[in-house]
Amino acid sequence: MEVFQRRREKLAHFIKGSAMVLTHYPKAWRNHDVDHPFRQDSSIYYLSGYEEAESIFIFRPGHSPESVLFVQPKDEVAEMWEGRRLGPEKAKELYQVDACYPITELEDHLSELLLPVDKVYYEFHKNPEFDKLLLQALEDGRRSRGRTGLGIPPILDAKEMIGEMRLYKDAEEIEVMATAARISAEAHREAMKFVSPGVNERQVCAVLEFVFKMRGADRIGYNPIVATGDNATVLHYNSNNQECKEFDLLLIDSGCEYRYYTADITRTFPVSGTFTSAQKDFYDAVLNAQKAVLEVCKPGTLFKDLHEISKKHLSQSIHDLGLIKESADTILNEELYKKYFPHGTGHWLGLDVHDVGAYLVDGESRPLEENMYFTVEPGLYVPQDDSTAPEQFRGMGVRIEDNILITSDGYKNLTETVPKEVKEIEDLMQQESLLTKI
Ligand SMILES: [Mn+2]
To answer: Is the pTM of this model over 0.70?
Structure first.
């Protein structure tokens, strides 16, 4: 609770006199009689620690009550079917907020809570029903002021403000992030040991999830991509149901979520356990680009420069591998590389896999600073049916992704224990996985 309190105090400096209103996502995951597991909204969790469904958190620094939580009311029948609820009294005590009401009374309080604030920080379109309630409450407030000529307060995007805080990870976050990274790394190593010709992508998925859960992760951080051969050239492939063939590469993009923080690791390795010489050339092109990017990860480097370096290295490799005949400069300057490297080099990481936080400040790329956390993930993808590429590289997709924390004088790679050198991968794949015995 101390940690959440401290975060609220920090936010209070930025938004004194205003209100930040945070909503849960609506319970849209109900499919017939199946409720998909609920996960609290990242920002509600970040500022309050509260974990139950159907909640609204309003933070009004400089006003009283300052922190207000709306929660599901006690309900014997609902609790018997769907799970226990704390209810307002217990929630208020446990989460140390100034006021706590049942969410059924939201409309009775909302207008009054928003009446005295200078600005409202809110994220539209997350919960369309609540969007309407909020606007109505603001309009009711305006009317209640009578003929004063005053309008509704300005509404600013909460995501931008909270993103500015969540971008800099605090000590507690770094500890939890490191655990998420460590568990995810172990799962990737286990998957490398497990894979051999004939296993199915879905079995590899099961290995990943087994290690995640056995090591204490709460859930998968996102749907894993386990893509063998040509499937790896489909960036968001998620069928995960094909057999791994002996001479194919396998790309795994997977990370667990541990206490709300996600890791996001990608590795690519040969199903057989040994890279062919074409696979090795193709793979090393991506690996060298990734290493070149890591080299400049330190305070002061512009975020966009990470992508500049990837683009430059991969353009050279696209030329050297003969994927495109033009010169490396032409491939770079005319953006021909986009045919084989169509995505960015990385993204902020944290409570969300694509975490909040602005990439630009005043229209310029943001310099890296201590305690920022992001992925570095260059890739090259040549679809099987690409008749212009040399035949030996068709049906290859390689991405290598690590999770990087900026320190005072450089960076820490929290996912470095998953091998990525050709020799290290081949050595690890020689080891037997305990899970192959099942
Ligand atoms: Mn990623």
So the answer is: yes
pLDDT tens string 49-73: 999 999 999 999 999 999 999 999 9
Residue 285 Cα to ligand 1 middle (Å): 19
Ligand 1 centre and the CA of 163: distance in Å?
18
Neighbours of 437 (CB within 10 A): 6
Number of structural domains the chain divides into: 2
How far is residue 218's CA from residue 216's CA, in Å, rounded to a whole number? Answer: 6
Please report, for the domain that includes residue 268, its CATH number. 3.90.230.10
Shared domain for 7 and 33, answered yes or no, is yes
Average pLDDT value for residue range 359-373: 97
What spacing in Å lies between the alpha carbon of 375 and ligand 1's midpoint? 6
Calculate how far, in angstroms, residue 22's C-alpha sits from the geometric centre of ligand 1.
26
Q: Among all residues, which ones are annotated catalytic?
A: 33, 236, 253, 264, 343, 347, 354, 377, 381, 399, 401
C-alpha of residue 386 to centroid of ligand 1, in Å: 25
> Does residue 244 share a domain with residue 309?
yes
Q: Which residues of 122-135 are buried (b: 16+ CB within 10 A; e: fewer)?
A: bbeebbeebeebbe
pLDDT score recorded for residue 436: 83
Q: 165, 200, 225: which is the final residue of a domain?
A: 165
Specify the pLDDT at position 27.
64
Q: Which residues contact 130 (CB under 8 A, 6 or more apart)?
A: 23, 56
80 and 104 share a domain? yes
Q: Which of 274, 275, 297, 271 is nearest to 284 (CA)?
A: 275
Whole-number mean pLDDT of the chain? 96
Quick: pLDDT tens for 99-127: 999 999 999 999 999 999 999 999 999 89
Residues 123 and 207 in one domain: no
Q: 165, 196, 220 — which closes off a domain?
A: 165
Q: What is the pLDDT of residue 23?
A: 94
Residue 100 token pair: 């706590």
List pLDDT tens digits, range 406-428: 999 999 999 999 999 999 999 99
Among 291, 331, 340, smallest CA distance to 312 is for: 331
Q: Domain of residue 240: give its range.
A: 168-437
Determine the distance separating the centroid of ligand 1 and the alpha carbon of 374, expressed in angstroms: 8
Note whether 282 and 323 are same-domain residues.
yes
